[in-house]
Amino acid sequence: MLALxxxxxxxxxxxxxxxxxxxxxxxxxxxxVKWLLKRDKAHLFKFTALQSESGKKLQLKLLSDLEKLPxxxxxxxxxxxxxxxxxxxxxxxxxxxPFNLISKALLNIGLYRFYDVFYDLxxxxxxxxFGKKSTCMVPSQKxxxxxI
Length: 148
Description:
5 strands
């Protein structure tokens, strides 16, 4: 388990407790970020694209602990770093019913290698299946404060 204690990123002096790092040019990833923004009623999550300055700095911090970063969503919760299906389920457990119950159940079962096979099937083909933008998503004014 990787840990980044007291995570502070570009453009903010406040500690970030729940950070979702996503592929900003991926149509599929952008769809799920928008989906998550609608369901995060407590506004817990902050977001940054892998391609942003904050995303690049986080990747450099992680590369000091890893040989290679997985081609995956990165989720940081209170300094603990999660990738792939585990990241998805850790995010899901912070959402309302039924997503929190489903995510908690799947986390408790703990078959991450099995879940990651399905995650990788989609992640490795996401541009082919869903397309890719030439630039990162620009958040609307309504949600801009939730992006770093």
